[in-house]
Amino acid sequence: MGGFTLDDILATRKSRDSWWTVFMVDPLACRLALLVANHTSMTPNGLTRLSMAIGLGAATAFAYGALALGAVLFYLSFTVDCMDGKIARLKGTGTPFGLWLDYVGDRIRVVACAFGIGFGEYARSGDTEYALAAVGVVVLDLFRYINGPQLKRVKEATRELAQARMAGDCVFMEDVLRARPRTEAAGVDVEDGRTVLDLQKAFHARFPWYDRFRVFLVRRRVRTHVMSGIEFHAAVFVVAPLLGVGALVPVSAGAGALLLAFEISLVYRVWLAARQIPRSAPERERILA
């Protein structure tokens, strides 16, 4: 039905992605996406619905104690979920509704699988720690999705305030690095004749190794979110079930602690960036209103 090549599919990958996706999922997802693109008429939304169905299958397997099967199904569900965006970008068939469906599908899969594992094991053992772990996984996942947009709003407000203080005559280091991701922040002071404002200057000063680490990851198409929601889900719903019942709670607790620490580090970076801007109450109130 199509004459797409593997290179065409590889070109649709995100410029940077989670390390779990880059190394553990994309090698399979890209080849499956090539088969779908060339031999079926399946749409991105159809792939999202298929991913949701497989995810519910994983939740059912978890609920009945088939942990290894549930882990395999969850992995396949996420793999299919990674295919829909590639097909959308390849064929130009993405829709705004598809963004909503993809988001809701992810949340349904996580909630269903968490409760499938937690309350399934609780029903079999009577141990409440499984149920509490399930609730903790869901709460952390929802917190991550609430925290992200709020931090984005703070970053945008900080940038607007900085532009007001600089009379708009500046370019942000974040934009320079986005355009040239393999560039190290150190030593970049001027861009297109304008002053480069590094809102992460304090962070870079406190953690000088971070920028080199970022460039190291960029060269491998990996983003710096080393413990994002994707790795959290992989640990809880793939790694822990494959290790067995005894690993469910400790692995979930450990992955949850790492995810929470990462979210706190994001808050810390945004707080440091906000402190870089000289205070001006009238301007701050006008911009933040």
UniProtKB/TrEMBL annotation:
Keywords: Membrane, Transferase, Transmembrane, Transmembrane helix. The keyword Transmembrane applies. The chain crosses the membrane at residues 50-76, 229-249, 255-274. It holds the Pfam family CDP-OH_P_transf. This is CDP-alcohol phosphatidyltransferase family protein. The keyword Transport does not apply. InterPro entries: CDP-OH_P_trans, CDP-OH_PTrfase_TM_dom, CDP_ALCOHOL_P_TRANSF_CS.
